[in-house]
Specification:
The protein has about 120 residues and is mainly α. It has helices at about 5-15, 20-35, 40-75, 75-110. It folds into two domains: about 1-35, no CATH class; about 40-115.
Length: about 120
């Protein structure tokens, strides 16, 4: 196989590889190089943050579904407006509370936020 043919074959192979595959490979390579400097405390802190966020989102989805059910059963526009107003108020309170929790988790584990 000539040099030209090899180059064409390599280019064709590169073209068939999806951009997402290339991105995933780059991310995995970067993560592998970075994880060596992080201690177990850092991973525990990140696990706690992730768990908190998933728990919060799960609860929010439940509340969203409940609100949708209430809206479907509403008898008039005034009731719909009341449901929406309560939903928005509760949502703002929930997100403010959650942000405070996440800030606290970050502060408590601040010493572990920097690679060891």
């Amino acid at each position: 196989m000539t040099t030209d043919e090899k180059t064409k074959q390599e280019n064709k192979t590169k073209e068939t590889v999806s951009p997402m595959s290339s991105l995933m490979e780059a991310m995995q390579s970067t993560n592998t190089n970075m994880t060596a400097g992080f201690g177990p405390e850092w991973f525990e802190a990140m696990s706690n943050v992730g768990h908190e966020m998933l728990t919060f989102m799960s609860e929010r989805i439940k509340q969203d579904i409940q609100t949708q059910q209430e809206l479907l059963q509403a008898k008039g526009i005034a009731e719909i407006q009341q449901i929406q107003a309560e939903f928005l108020k509760k949502t703002q309170e929930d997100y403010a509370t959650e942000m405070a929790k996440l800030v606290e988790l970050g502060t408590v584990h601040n010493k572990h936020a920097i690679p060891v």
